[in-house]
Amino acid sequence: MRLHQVILFSCGGLGIFAAEKYIYKEGSMNKEIEQYKKIITSLFEEISSEDEVIKKAAAVIGDSIMQDKVIHVIGPGGHSNLAVEEMFSRAGGFACVNAILDPGTNLSHGGFRSLKVERVPGYANAVLSSYGVGKTPGEVLLIVNAYGINAMTIDSALYAKKMGLTSIAVTSRSFADKIPKDHPSRHPTGANLYQSVDIFINNHLPYGDAILSVDGCEQNVGPTSTFCNCFTVDYLTVEICKYLVSKGYTPPIFRSGNLPGGDEYNKSLFEKYSGKAILLF
Question: What is the pLDDT of residues 170-189, one digit of tens each?
Answer without folding.
Answer: 999 999 999 999 999 999 99
